[in-house]
User: Which sequence fits this backbone?
């Protein structure tokens, strides 16, 4: 699988303010049904993360969401 490295600001620019389908599948066991809440929650978690951002679970979910919607 392609490894994608983006900053939080790049992810915000790429993901926020756009329209998405009602359901976004991140994988076989992960489906987003409330995109606005999902993105808000993931970005909050990333902003509170104190370690390397690429080790943050919310960051990984945002990257998966980005890949699934482009």
Assistant:
């Amino acid at each position: 699988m392609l490894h994608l490295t983006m900053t939080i600001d790049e992810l915000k620019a790429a993901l926020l303010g756009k329209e998405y389908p009602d359901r976004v599948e991140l994988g076989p066991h992960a489906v987003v049904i409330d995109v606005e809440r999902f993105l808000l929650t993931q970005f909050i978690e990333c902003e509170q993360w104190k370690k390397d951002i690429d080790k943050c679970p919310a960051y990984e979910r945002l990257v998966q969401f980005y890949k699934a919607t482009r």
Observations:
- Residues 35-48 form the longest helix (14 residues).
- Residues 8-69 form one domain.
- The chain has a mean pLDDT of 93.
